[in-house]
Design a protein that fits this description.
Elements (H helix, E strand, L loop, with lengths): L9 E4 L11 H7 L5 E3 L1 E7 L6 E7 L3 E6 L6 E6 L15 E6 L2 E5 L4 E6 L3 E11 L2 E10 L8 E7 L2 E4 L9 E8 L2 E6 L4 E4 L13 E3 L7 E7 L2 E6 L3 E6 L7 E3 L7 E3 L1 H4 L9 E4 L2 E8 L6 E5 L4 E3 L3 H9 L6 E6 L2 E7 L8 E7 L4 E7 L2 E6 L2 E4 L6 E5 L7 E2 L2 E10 L8 E10 L7 E7 L7 E7 L6 E3 L3 E2 L3 E8 L4 E10 L1
Antiparallel strand pairs: 1-42, 2-35, 3-4, 4-42, 5-33, 6-7, 7-8, 8-9, 10-11, 11-12, 12-13, 14-15, 15-16, 16-17, 18-19, 19-20, 20-21, 22-24, 23-24, 24-25, 25-26, 27-28, 28-29, 29-30, 31-32, 32-33, 34-35, 35-41, 36-39, 36-40, 36-42, 37-38, 37-41
Length: 503
């Protein structure tokens, strides 16, 4: 009795990883689609607490909705931050503030008002953080100069919109680099000329005596910037990092923890003054993530610090993508369907589409996301737009009922190589997916490449609202890659690729 042609004998879980074989990782894997990849999708993992069985589903990423309009469409957006009220206990979205540039004016905008607080050609807002001073929340905004990367940064602070005050006096004599970090009532910044970590007086951001400093000195290096992990301040050079803690000393409270010094520097993010890179580190869970320049490597890698040790996170395939980029933008974080992720921006606004890599620590896996209307620069899952959308912020849906960026459907795909079954000719009379059944017409395109990702042939369109999500006549092949893709505004949930393969 002949077996049914619609009965699969081959199943591939849709949990493929990147395999950027070429050194041209970004060109081939991201732009050229010449390797395994996943775009605008995430995993959803279930586990039965009684049986221990786990299930994995490849789903579309959540979309974003237009949240707040501010300023005007001709400005170039850089930073977003929720702004607390003067008591320090208000709703973080009570007065959301977006920082932007219009001509030579650095501006802070809410949905109802705009103030220009710094007038200078080639300036742009680079870092912004909340600093709590005597129970009052302040925004500290650092402004850099695109045309002169070695020029002094100008720094402003504000506890009440629209009033911004410049930090002046002794502070303006520091050749500071990187971002200001605050801890235990002090603010800290690195001085590029002498590797000093300068600190403010306690409980103020405006007073910086010149004698308030400790020097990063275990390894002589070019100062790059600071990062904070809980009760520690990390001082980065180009090739090294030294870790400090608050020892309660005066006038400089920090002391070095010499055993935590490491040959890991801060490379591209701090060096890039010609784009909108806005933060080079992010705290996610118990770990600080940043793009680290490891000893002997000519390019950065995503690195984590848990307070006791440094760990390289990105694998060699992802490193090849980073290696080719002359611009690596902001390192941030998102919460996606309850799962935290580290975000590494690969393109600078107003590039369209925006592209970034997502690393989910729970799954230890990477995904590529992109969008034509928003970029991954924001706070608390509110992000700023690009191009003609630069006057809008976008809110990642908390309860997703459709999968769009604003009013735009976005495209998704996953592509992978079928496991090898030898180099002999094989035929595929049937193929398809095991997937959630859509509630309405939802078409998925199936493409095959039988020449190692170089050319793709559209073989079928499968409607995911059908009970049987199958197609027939897959032809013959020696070696095959599969691409599943679509553009839709409704949910997609894929479990496995299935096929009948005859040797």
């Amino acid at each position: 009795m002949a077996e049914r042609v619609d009965k699969p004998n081959f199943t591939v879980p849709l949990a493929n990883t990147y395999n950027t074989r070429s050194h041209m990782g970004y060109t081939n894997a991201v732009l050229g689609d010449l390797d395994q990849k996943k775009v605008n999708v995430i995993y959803e993992v279930t586990k039965n607490s009684l049986t221990g069985n786990t299930g994995l589903k490849l789903s579309l990423r959540p979309g974003v909705t237009d949240s707040i309009t501010y300023g005007d469409a001709t400005q170039s957006s850089f930073l977003y931050n929720g702004f607390l009220d003067s008591t320090g206990f208000g709703d973080p979205f009570s007065v959301p503030v977006v920082f932007s540039i219009l001509n030579t004016s650095t501006r802070a905008s809410t949905s109802s008002a705009t103030t220009s607080f710094h007038i200078q050609a080639n300036a742009y807002p680079k870092y912004v953080d909340h600093v709590l001073v005597n129970g009052v929340d302040n925004l500290v905004v650092q402004i850099a100069n695109q045309a002169n990367p070695t020029a002094l940064q100008t720094v402003y602070y504000s506890s009440t919109f629209p009033f911004f005050s410049q930090i002046v006096s002794t502070f303006t004599t520091f050749t500071h680099t990187g971002k200001i970090e605050s801890m235990d009532g002090y603010s800290f910044v690195m001085d590029r000329t002498n590797n000093r970590i300068q600190n403010s007086n306690i409980n103020t951001v405006s007073t910086w005596p010149s004698g308030n400093f400790i020097t990063k000195q275990i390894q002589q290096d070019m100062a790059m910037g600071l990062a904070k992990h809980k009760d520690k301040i990390l001082a980065f050079g180009l090739n090294s990092v030294e870790v400090f803690y608050n020892a309660g000393l005066s006038p400089a409270p920090l002391l070095s923890i010499k055993t935590l010094q490491a040959p890991i520097g801060l490379g591209y993010p701090c060096l890039r003054f010609d784009g909108n890179q806005t933060h080079y580190s992010t705290l996610l869970g118990d770990k600080l993530y940043f793009m680290g320049q490891h000893a002997g490597a000519p390019y950065p890698a995503l690195t984590a610090f848990d307070g006791n040790r440094f760990e390289k996170i990105s694998n060699s395939y992802i490193d090849k993508i980073f290696k080719e980029r002359t611009f690596i933008g902001s390192v941030g974080s998102m919460l996606v369907n309850g799962q935290p992720a580290v975000v590494v921006q690969l393109t600078q606004a107003p590039d369209n589409p925006q592209r970034w890599l997502m690393f989910f620590p729970q799954w230890n896996d990477w995904f590529e996301w992109n969008s034509g209307i928003w970029q991954p620069v924001g706070v608390q899952n509110v992000f700023i737009g690009i191009g003609t959308n630069s006057a809008s912020t976008y809110l990642m849906n908390r309860v997703t009922t459709y999968f769009r960026d604003g009013t735009n459907n976005y495209s998704w795909l996953t592509q992978f190589k079928l496991p090898s079954q030898g180099t002999h000719l094989k035929t595929m009379p049937m193929f398809g997916v095991e997937a959630d059944t859509a509630r309405s017409t939802n078409n998925m395109t199936v493409e095959f490449s039988d020449d190692d990702y170089q050319t793709w042939t559209t073989t079928a369109t499968i409607d995911l609202s059908q009970t049987r999500k199958l197609a027939f006549r897959g032809g013959g092949f020696y070696d095959r890659a599969v691409r599943l893709s679509g553009t839709t505004s409704t949910e997609v949930g894929l479990h496995n690729f299935v096929a009948r393969i005859n040797a």
